[in-house]
Amino acid sequence: MTTGVRRRMGVEERREQLIAVALQLFSDRSPEDVSIDEIAAAAGISRPLVYHYFPGKLSLYEAALRRAADELARRFDEPLEGPLGTRLLRVMGRFFAFVDEHGPGFSALMRGGPAVGSTRTNALVEEVRQAAYEQILRHLGIGEPPARLRLVVRSWVSLAESTALLWLDGREIPRAELELQLVHDFAALAAVSAAYNAEMAGVLARILAHEPADGPFGELVARLASLVPGDAGPTREPAPDPMPGPAPEPR
Amino acid sequence: MTTGVRRRMGVEERREQLIAVALQLFSDRSPEDVSIDEIAAAAGISRPLVYHYFPGKLSLYEAALRRAADELARRFDEPLEGPLGTRLLRVMGRFFAFVDEHGPGFSALMRGGPAVGSTRTNALVEEVRQAAYEQILRHLGIGEPPARLRLVVRSWVSLAESTALLWLDGREIPRAELELQLVHDFAALAAVSAAYNAEMAGVLARILAHEPADGPFGELVARLASLVPGDAGPTREPAPDPMPGPAPEPR
Q: Which residues of A touch B193 (CB under 8 A)?
């Protein structure tokens, strides 16, 4: 990315270079701590020339965040094939890879960073969330989701976001563990909603209908089931496990 | 709150009045849509006098958000008595009551609102989250939480926040249902973490050890367990499917 060789670039080429340089710098440090001077130096051009392409610091940040948001949203793309748990696990792998690569930039995007107060930045974040939300509904094959499913999907998207941000703060837990955990969290949140609502129970039954025993959903259910005492019911001993079986009952 | 009668107030009394008036207006409309003129009118004083007490719009907003954040944090206080699920359900009741009363103000606090870009506002939000986090650990009786428990508690706090924000957008689902759901979500997220980690399994076992069968945790476990066939485990028979549509696999 950095080069000491000055050469003439076209307008678009130069803008692309500056965005790439900025994103590269944001992967190690927060955008707030990266100056235009550093970006100019890394791009091998003068500070005024940076301003020629981006009228202010904010506009370069916004362009870089726009690029990052687009890339992140692209990682949600997943073919509509195979068990749902496996698809979601693959997406989580790409999501955490992005978070891993763009650590400080991701935090800045999600927390507002130096462009905080910019309604454009907030809109970008909402766009990424919306992309995730729509992808999930597409995979579930549900065109007009009931209110409770909308809530489960959106709140899970928010959970994935906060889990990634918390992970970045120290990276104490192996990434792969959290990728799998979030897949399970989705099933768990849907199951809780299904435990009290017949419509959600139907949705969950359809979701789980085609999951194989060795897929991530199947594996979780097996692990949890093994913790449940045989005589399931309110009078049994406390179990360390409030998790569902696959077929919720309507009320 | 509003009064046409002008009377002399002390400095602190006037500041308190203006904060109360602002919070009252923020409970119906977003702070962004409330002008200093309206606040002045509702307080029965002139616009310049408002500026006498608060040098700028932002400083009044910040004072009002400070007050709201303190009140919200106070609602997390709960005696260390009785089953954990019941305590958490009571806190959720007070939390949603706050969200209900302060709708637009709560959204503004959590989304940044007009004071976005203010590091003080961000710090306020983090303070509220931290207060919730510490209360939960206090009730769990865990002084030095392992990394996975910290993640579960913090990510659940974030889930509660986003669930409340999503609920405010249309209020389609009864509030009481979401209060109970969040208690269950906590148990579910802890259970997912416990399914793969022995330390978390120990924590969860301690949490659930003293929960009564008719408390919120016990009720959820019973409901979910009633969906699990008697011989829990990966080789059990398929559950009777109460729902129309494809039957779930017995994994």
A: 181
Three-state DSSP class for B175? Answer: helix
Per the CB < 8 Å rule, is A192 touching B220?
yes
Q: Looking at residue A246, what is its pLDDT? A: 39
**Per-residue model confidence as pLDDT tens digits over B38-86:** 999 999 999 999 999 998 888 888 898 889 899 999 999 999 999 899 9
Q: Is residue B20 part of a domain?
A: no
pLDDT in tens, A137-155: 999 998 899 999 999 999 9
What's the CATH number where A32 sits? 1.10.10.60
| Residue B32 placed within a domain | no
Angle at A104 between CA A120 and CA B197, to 5 degrees: 115
- Domain co-membership, A39 together with A95: no
Question: Could you tell me the residue range of the domain that residue A48 belongs to?
Answer: 1-55
Same domain? For A7 and A83 the reply is no
Do the Cβ atoms of B1 and B64 come closer than 8 Å? no
Spatial distance between the Cα atoms of A90 and B240, rounded to a whole number of angstroms: 32
Chain B nearest C-alpha distance from A190 (Å): 10
Q: Which of A168, A192, A231 to mutate to test the interface with B (most CBs of B within 10 A)?
A: A192
For the domain that residue B201 is a member of, what is the CATH number?
A: 1.10.357.10
- Which residue of chain A comes nearest to B167, CA vs CA? A151
Q: Are A101 and A185 in a shared domain? A: yes
Single-letter amino acid, residue B162:
S
Query: Which of A172-176, A241-245, B198-202: highest mean pLDDT?
Result: A172-176
Mind listing the pLDDT tens digit for each residue in B202-222?
Answer: 888 887 777 887 777 777 766
Is residue A173 domain-shared with residue A213, that is, in the same domain?
yes
Domain tally for chain A? 2
